[in-house]
Amino acid sequence: MVGRELLHFLEKSRLPVGELRPFSSGSAGKTVPFRGRALQAPPVDKKTLYGCGLVFFVSSDEISIQHSPGLAARGVLVIDDSSAFRLDPKVPLVIPEVNGHVLRRRLRLIAGPNCTMTPLAVAGIALHRAVGVTEVRLATYQSVSGAGRAALEEFFRQVRGHGRLAVKGRAPVLHSSIPHQALPKPIAYNVIPQVGGFDQRGCSGEESKVASELRKVWDAPTLRVSVTAVRVPVVRGHSMSAWLTLRRPISPAAARKLLAKTPGLKLSADGDYPTPLLVGGKGPVYAGRIRQGATPRELCLWLSYDNLIKGAALNSVQIAEELLKKGWL
């Protein structure tokens, strides 16, 4: 799904695409649309990849690990949306509005961020630079599309199978016997507090990724980060509640002024807030419900964003556009 969005933004971007060579990680015979044509998307072929000037990976960690280092060593620019190289100290992890300054001419392999970390990195960077953020607590509400096409199709099947619920007297009770395979529990009419496998501490893979990647993008190795990642029955668009502990107090009104000027962020009117239905198909991160927390040094906010766009495809294209602007592409 991210690959399809990437093609859409490549069509709209100012990148000089001389020839597009799409590949599929699946079986042969697939096609993708680009500029009014249906292009064949065969399985990944190393020799053809080496003939490209720029390669986007929006596939699995395994595919990226197999091909990215060799391509970069040959001078091909690689922008990788997998998690394979995000925490590699030799590979920049880039959100252009936040830390585009870490790009270097000689670096040929660039990592894109976890889609769940991206909105907070965008929304919080101005606060971090102005008053300092020492601790972040997050509760994320992640759409099914973030788990891939198989999970989304399973969600639709579950809804169709249990979609006619007549409420007479007591509300109906659905049980966990709903068939499921792509996600650890049924997602229709449910929430799942697990995104990825659990480690020995009981943290899910998603929760660990968000914490580690935010520290790297903000260049804040001592930042304390706590995350609870939850999958919710929403088709597209992640949301999150964030509690930021600040080094110095700032009023919600002053925080709104900073956020209103933040690149890549749209601020809702005071008293309003964004939702997944509002942000679907749109590029910015949306913020609302800016308020003071339990202490003068705590600030709370609500974020919504399209996880397939700024959380993945659009960010990759923006990295390429930044390289083009610098004359390195």
Helix and strand arrangement:
Elements: H1 2-12, E1 31-34, E2 37-40, H2 46-49, E3 54-57, H3 61-73, E4 77-80, H4 96-99, E5 109-111, H5 118-131, E6 133-142, H6 149-161, H7 205-217, E7 224-231, E8 238-246, H8 252-260, E9 265-267, H9 276-279, E10 285-292, E11 298-305, H10 309-325
Parallel strand pairs: 3-4, 4-5, 6-7, 9-10
Antiparallel strand pairs: 1-2, 6-8, 8-11, 10-11
Helix pairs in contact: 1-10
Describe this structure in words.
With 329 residues, the protein is of the alpha/beta class. It folds into two domains: 2-113 and 312-325, NAD(P)-binding Rossmann-like Domain (Rossmann fold), CATH 3.40.50; 118-143 and 191-307, Dihydrodipicolinate Reductase, domain 2. The chain contains ten helices and eleven strands. It has helices spanning 2-12, 46-49, 61-73, 96-99, 118-131, 149-161, 205-217, 252-260, 276-279, 309-325, and strands spanning 31-34, 37-40, 54-57, 77-80, 109-111, 133-142, 224-231, 238-246, 265-267, 285-292, 298-305. The chain has a six-stranded mixed β-sheet. Strands 3-4-5 form a three-stranded parallel β-sheet, sandwiched between helices. The model has no long low-confidence stretch (mean pLDDT 94).
Share of helix, binned: 25-40%
The CATH superfamily of the largest domain turns out to be Dihydrodipicolinate Reductase, domain 2
The SSE order reads HEEHEHEHEHEHHEEHEHEEH
Please count the helical segments.
10
Strand arrangement across the biggest beta sheet: 7-6-8-11-10-9
Q: What's the CATH architecture of the largest domain?
A: 2-Layer Sandwich
Please identify the top-level CATH class of the largest domain.
Alpha Beta
> How many strand segments?
11
Largest sheet, described in full?
6 strands, mixed
Number of domains: 2
**Shape field:** globular
Q: Tell me the fraction of residues in β-strands, as a range.
A: 15-25%
Mean pLDDT: 94
CATH topology of the largest domain: Dihydrodipicolinate Reductase, domain 2
The secondary structure category is alpha/beta
Low-confidence stretches: none
CA-to-CA gap between the ends?
26 Å
Radius of gyration: 21 Å
